[in-house]
Each structure stands twice: as structure tokens, then as C-alpha cells.
Amino acid sequence: MKHPCLLLLLWVAAPLAAQQSSGDRARGLELYLEFACYSCHGYNGTGRTPLSRETSGILGSEALFVSYLRLRADQNPINPRNTMPNYDAATLSDQQAIDIYAYLLSLSDDPPEIEEIPAFMDVLESAERRPDGDSSEN
Q1: Which of 22, 33, 69, 71 has the largest count of CB atoms under 10 Å?
Q2: How confident is the model at residue 70 (pLDDT cuts 50, 70, 90)?
């Protein structure tokens, strides 16, 4: 049964602190690439639609993740403007979904501080310098 209320109930009831998986993380990476999940979620889960354990509510449990994939009907029930393919069991088995889930749990959205990125700091410093050597604004 495809029902957004059921998905919301699963989302609220999922124990977010108990993020563990019985899946195969290495196989999950292969499937993540094979199904082109990276095209929206990026190679590290921080693409235009973030999907890392710090940013995504659908990673609360294996059951929630698999249910989300099955109940989508090509629409995100939380944000209907955000579409994604519906993965039924004939397309993606439960074990394959659990393997992808295991891979996703290994991702972390923990970007470095701006000051820790030398190339970015060079760009900022360059932008602050004016051609006449004056860094003040007029």
C-alpha cells in the first residue's frame, strides 16, 4: 500500500540513534554507482539532494529506508517537488537496498572549515585585493 501517512509514521517511529546495518557496505557502493544514485546525491551523499546520516531523515533504520524506496511512487511525500524513481522489489531487492543503506551510513557530511581549504583561502584573499593595491572599499 502506497500511503504517505505510513511513511511519516515510520519516519517518526524510527530510532535515529540506532543506525546500524546488516548490509554489505562494499556491495552497497557498487549498487549506488550502478543505479546512478550519485547523479542526484553526489558521490559522497552531499549532492543537490543530501543523503548522509547527518542530513537525511530516511536513514533512521533499514526498514525505514527500504519502505521509503518502495512507497515513493516517484514522488517524495515530504517534498513533492523532489522526484526520485520508485524502486520496487523486482528492480531493487530488499538485500540490495540494505546494502545501499549500509554504504550510505558510511558517508559523512563533515566538510572542512573554510580556513582549512588553502585554494579557497587564496581565492578569498585575491578577491579582497584591488588592482591598485588598495584593499579598502570606496
Answers
A1: 69
A2: confident
